[in-house]
Design goal:
This protein has helices spanning 13-21, 28-40, 45-58, 62-73, 101-111, 130-134, 146-156, 169-179, 187-201, 221-237, 259-270, 276-292, 299-312, 314-325, 331-334, 361-373, 412-425, and strands spanning 2-4, 10-12, 89-93, 116-119, 158-161, 205-212, 241-248, 256-257, 344-349, 354-359, 387-390, 397-398, 403-409, 426-429, 439-443. It is an alpha+beta fold. Helix 2 (28-40) runs parallel beside helix 4 (62-73), helix 4 packs parallel to helix 9 and helix 5 packs across helix 12 (276-292). The protein starts with a strand and ends with a strand. Bound molecules: uracil (URA). Uracil binds next to helix 9.
Length: 444
């Protein structure tokens, strides 16, 4: 395939694939040529897949990754939020299991006076997505136009929308392709995917929550650090205040895994309750954002402000405003019991006494997908009601017969399989086991 690129030069995509296959560094022009050609539909999926696989196997230099990020950000509109609100902030998780943090952090930070304009994603593989959780509220719209995004940000100071706007469309296309071609787990591809969206969405401050562990795309700490460093450097190069926290994803965050169940857990947390690990993670992330956005002197003070805001009910009131502004039925926020429930809710008890040594987060995430809570293909419908409530954490002492987890299912066969998979995800020890840390560090 031969396409004219904007610089009056002709390139051949096959030569770019061969160059990367042979471990050479691509030029900015070659990367722009690929991104423009793929977004425009001139480069077919099979050649884009080949290049993505060559990148996954042979990597990219920082220069190449930065060029890829900018080319993807520039593939659509790039919002300049400085003209809309002073100091808009954004947070992004690299993806995990039970990670409903944005549902609490965005309204908490916005209720503290810092505007949050965020473009969220859907579930990817075994990891859940913020939009799917929000859409379990009937009527909620995640397809705002850029005008709606800007207007809502100005009016109520918080927006959580999808990639429906013409923001980083190249990433939208490439992300879906990577999901089905085994090319998600590439540091330069993840970094450019996330940072292109952050740059296009226009926030001045970006907090990256880089997950590490069995239920994350980065399973080892060194790789997670590398990804975090790369994204922070790209953010800074683009003039955005960018910080990354490295957080644990070896076990699910909080207790709930599954769209509507996670929404309900976020609502419990906004009501001042919720599992302690999840609540703490939300407070820490909010603290960082408040410090970076200049509302707090430092993250410790930021955490205190966030805690007071959560306790006062202002964060919940902001969440209600957000749902209402985006067409959601707020009766479900006020009375989560109204949310549709799955047909079967099974309680599974501990088969033995002992200490929990491991709860394999990836297996829990995959089970939620098996129950129908995620997609095997992009076009698959999603069942909002199904999921798992994991009752204990690594390090807990549990007695035989105590509730270990609950399964919410709409299909008896899947329920049986899910029970077995979640039992297998739990490993036991007769000796005391240290609880897992919430964090492994910060990159700034
Ligand atoms: N999240 C993203 O936005 N992109 C990736 O590639 C992985 C996680």
């Amino acid at each position: 395939m031969r396409i004219d690129c904007g610089r009056n030069k002709t390139m051949r995509i096959v030569e770019i694939i061969i160059k990367k296959r042979d471990k050479a560094e691509l030029t900015q022009e070659e990367i722009e040529f690929f991104v423009q050609g793929y977004t425009g539909g001139e480069i077919p999926d099979y050649q884009a897949s080949a290049l993505a696989m060559a990148i996954l196997l042979n990597g990219m230099t920082t220069r190449e990754t930065t060029a890829m990020t900018l080319a993807m950000a520039n593939s659509g509109e790039v919002l300049d939020l400085t003209k809309v609100v002073p100091n808009a902030v954004d947070k992004h998780s690299t993806g995990g299991v039970g990670d409903k943090t944005s549902l609490v952090v965005a309204p908490t930070v916005a209720a503290c006076g810092l505007p949050v304009g965020k473009m969220s994603g859907r579930g990817l593989g075994f990891s859940g997505g913020t939009l799917d959780k929000l859409e379990s509220i009937p009527g909620f719209r995640s397809d705002l136009t850029p005008d709606e995004f800007i207007h809502q940000l100005k009016r109520i100071g918080v927006v959580l929308t999808g990639q429906s706007m013409n923001l980083a469309p190249a990433d939208g296309k490439l992300y879906a392709l990577r999901d089905v071609t085994g090319t998600v787990q590439s540091i330069p591809l993840i970094a450019s995917s996330i940072m292109s969206k952050k740059i296009a969405a226009g926030a001045q401050v970006v907090l990256l929550d880089v997950k590490v562990g069995k239920g994350a795309f980065m399973t080892d700490l060194e790789a997670a650090r590398k990804l975090a460093r790369l994204m922070v450097n790209i953010g800074k190069l683009c003039g955005r205040k960018t910080v990354a926290i490295l957080s644990d994803m070896n076990q699910p965050l909080g207790q709930a895994v599954g769209n509507s169940l996670e929404l309900q857990e976020a609502l419990e947390t906004l009501n001042g309750n919720g599992p302690s690990d999840f609540r703490e993670h939300c407070l820490v992330a909010s603290g960082y954002l408040l410090a970076l956005g200049g509302v707090a002197r430092n993250r410790i003070q930021g955490r205190k402000i966030a805690e007071a805001t959560l306790r006062s009910g202002k964060a919940l009131a902001k969440f209600r405003e957000l749902i209402k502004a985006q067409g959601g039925d707020i009766r479900y926020v006020d009375k989560p019991d109204l949310l549709e429930r799955s047909k079967y809710i099974a309680e599974v008890v501990a088969p033995r006494s002992g200490y929990i040594a491991e709860i394999d987060a990836r297996q829990v995430g995959e089970t939620a997908v098996l129950l129908g809570g995620g997609r095997a293909k992009k076009s698959d419908p999603i069942d909002y009601t199904v999921g798992i409530i994991v009752r204990h954490k690594v390090g807990d002492r549990v007695n035989a017969g105590e509730t270990l987890f609950n399964i919410h299912a709409n299909d008896k066969g899947k329920l049986t399989l899910a029970k077995q998979k979640i039992l297998e995800a739990h490993c036991w020890s007769d000796e005391p086991v240290k609880p897992l840390p919430l964090y492994y560090g910060i990159i700034s």
